[in-house]
Automatic annotation (TrEMBL):
<keyword id="KW-0735">Signal-anchor</keyword>
<dbReference type="InterPro" id="IPR004263">
    <property type="entry name" value="Exostosin"/>
</dbReference>
<feature type="transmembrane region" description="Helical">
    <location>
        <begin position="20"/>
        <end position="39"/>
    </location>
</feature>
<keyword id="KW-0333">Golgi apparatus</keyword>
<keyword id="KW-0328">Glycosyltransferase</keyword>
<keyword id="KW-0812">Transmembrane</keyword>
<protein>
    <recommendedName>
        <fullName>Exostosin GT47 domain-containing protein</fullName>
    </recommendedName>
</protein>
<dbReference type="InterPro" id="IPR040911">
    <property type="entry name" value="Exostosin_GT47"/>
</dbReference>
<keyword id="KW-0472">Membrane</keyword>
<dbReference type="Pfam" id="PF03016">
    <property type="entry name" value="Exostosin_GT47"/>
</dbReference>
<keyword id="KW-0808">Transferase</keyword>
<keyword id="KW-1133">Transmembrane helix</keyword>
<comment type="similarity">
    <text>Belongs to the glycosyltransferase 47 family.</text>
</comment>
<feature type="domain" description="Exostosin GT47">
    <location>
        <begin position="62"/>
        <end position="396"/>
    </location>
</feature>
Length: 481
């Protein structure tokens, strides 16, 4: 284990001032004891051992953080990447293969028009569905990996769940649609790692929303697979870009196109976003959904179109406009606020693209961010966002909501403070280069899941039933408050 020791030497003294104080104190005590009592040879080694032992345990900064990566049969991950040309439906691209390049970051962006803004090797054309690959590659570089599964605090299951199900979402034969999930569950159950905690220390990640794995009834009209309702799966935790209302689902940010390697690249970008002139008060990027006439999203589009202060970027025409990350980031960077109504699902990738560009998000539903990204965003939502809660279009009309008026009301100093907070959050919401030391969305997610598993372990130790609050539903997640 070479890597952890490198980390130790770099971070020990900053993170554990108390430890060094404790060691110093025990040496002082020891000296005191030795001078006050007649010298007794039995004293010295005992004291020395205690200190040494304490040092050893505390110096293992990976203690409690070890992760074991399950070595799955290739059909659950590598095979899907090797056959990326078959991933068309269910993703948003005719060919997903280019997006698998560069550890899942996708093709590099080189922007000759703005080379000073989009520096080489920091920006990629990242597709949200490659999050599974990105996460796996980052996990391979995680500082506290172990090959001894008994030593691990958590077991990572590198199943590319979303890419896998994208091949079967429109298959009407439910046996076929559910097959990989069922086979994976069987495989996991038969491993020795399973028995230790019955899977409660296992976790996986999906680049698709978790509802795609939560078909409750075996009817053809039901959406998605039944993966998360299999008994084995119910004992595991799943991270995904949008969590459902079940307690063993956790949300992590959608990947953006920004993947810095060095701290300096983040600082440079933050400086640029602070200085940027923002000619538009607010902006909305998305495609109208004529079939969803009575949706908040349509209301938002209507408002944006009729307001002088709003820039509407219609993604239904000239699609490349919204697909090109350089364009998207530039547009968000031209705006003070970015509207984020719920769409086909509660969440959108655009939340994170806009925040990376220093644009303050405006949310309309608690499920769009507040009940989701708890490991990455501040608990106090007023610090970094504007909240205009509306349950439905009827309420919107009744209250005669004007987004423009609501935003105009916010005093300039508050706007500046909001933007500063958003810019400060950038490192917490991006997936940095796997070789990077930046405390990013990945690190926060691993920290979050380790803490969660430790709590479950505590419950088992204390004789409580680990099933409570695990695979059951929490409707409060989506309640307006
Ligand atoms: C960035 O990459 C482009 C294309 O590969 C290259 O022409 C350019 O010189 C690079 N710029 C820097 C600063 O490395
Ligand atoms: C685990 O084993 C693999 C294959 O033997 C090896 O490449 C890797 O370095 C080992 N990892 C750790 C953390 O020991
Ligand atoms: C669904 O697929 C399975 C496996 O290929 C097959 O055995 C079964 O007959 C199919 N069911 C229907 C209703 O077509
Ligand atoms: C799930 O966990 C419970 C204990 O918490 C255990 O009794 C049960 O057998 C586990 N299910 C599976 C499929 O392993
Ligand atoms: C939340 O943040 C706002 C703005 O920074 C602040 O005024 C408020 O006191 C905070 N609320 C809590 C509960 O900390
Ligand atoms: C609704 O708000 C708009 C713009 O603020 C205003 O012009 C209009 O009179 C209001 N309508 C009602 C019924 O209050």
């Amino acid at each position: 284990m070479e890597k952890p020791s490198i980390m130790i030497s770099r971070t020990c003294c900053y993170h554990h001032p108390q430890l060094w104080f404790a060691i110093l104190l025990s040496f002082l005590l020891c000296t005191l004891i030795l001078t006050h009592f007649n010298y007794s040879s039995s004293f010295e080694p005992v004291v020395f051992n205690n200190v040494e032992q304490e040092q050893q345990q505390e110096q293992d900064l990976c203690h409690g953080k070890y992760v074991y990566i399950h070595d799955l049969p290739p059909r659950f991950n590598r095979y899907i990447i090797d056959h990326c040309d078959s991933l068309t439906r269910g993703t948003d691209k005719p060919n997903m293969c280019p997006y698998m390049k560069n550890m899942g970051f996708g093709p590099r962006i080189y922007s000759p028009e703005s080379p000073h803004l989009f520096t080489n090797n920091t920006w990629y054309e990242t597709n949200q569905f490659s999050l599974e690959l990105i996460f796996h590659n980052k996990m391979r570089n995680y500082k506290c990996l172990t090959n001894k599964s008994w030593e691990a605090s958590a077991i990572y299951v590198p199943f590319y769940a979303g890419l896998d199900i994208s091949r079967f979402l429109w298959v009407s034969n439910l046996t076929v649609r559910d097959a990989s999930g069922r086979d994976l569950a069987r495989w996991l159950w038969s491993q020795k790692e399973w028995k230790r905690m019955w899977g409660r220390d296992h976790f996986l990640i999906s680049g698709r929303i978790s509802w795609d794995f939560r078909r409750q009834h075996d009817t053809l009209s039901g959406w998605g697979s039944n993966f998360r309702f299999l008994p084995e799966s119910m004992n595991m935790s799943m991270l995904s870009v949008e969590a459902s209302s079940w307690n063993n689902d956790y949300a992590v940010p959608y990947p953006t196109s920004f993947h810095p390697l060095k701290e300096l690249e983040i600082l440079e970008w933050q400086r640029k976003m602070r200085k940027r002139k923002r000619p538009h008060l607010f902006t909305f990027t998305g495609a109208p959904r004529p079939e969803m006439k009575d949706s908040i999203r349509e209301k938002v589009i209507e408002h944006c179109r009729s307001s002088q202060a709003c820039k509407f970027i219609d993604c239904s025409y000239g699609k490349e406009k919204c697909d090109n990350p350089v364009n998207v980031i530039m547009e968000f960077g031209d705006s003070v606020f970015c509207l984020q109504p719920p769409g086909d699902s509660y969440t959108r990738r655009s939340i994170f693209d806009s925040m990376v560009a220093g644009c303050v998000p405006v949310f309309f539903h608690p499920g769009t961010a507040y009940s989701q990204y708890k490991w990455n965003l501040p608990e106090n939502r007023t610090r970094y966002s504007v909240y205009i809660p509306v349950r439905d279009v009827k309420e919107w009309d009744k209250r005669n909501i004007s987004v423009e008026k609501e935003l105009m009301k916010i005093p300039e100093d508050e706007v500046v403070a909001l933007r500063e907070e958003v810019i400060k959050l950038i490192p917490s919401i991006v997936y940095a280069d796997p070789r990077s030391e930046i405390e990013d969305a990945f690190n926060l997610a691993v920290k979050g899941i380790l803490e969660r598993i430790e709590r479950v372990r505590d419950e088992i130790r204390n004789g409580r039933d680990p099933r409570i609050g695990f695979a059951d539903e929490d409707h409060y997640k989506y309640t307006f408050n």
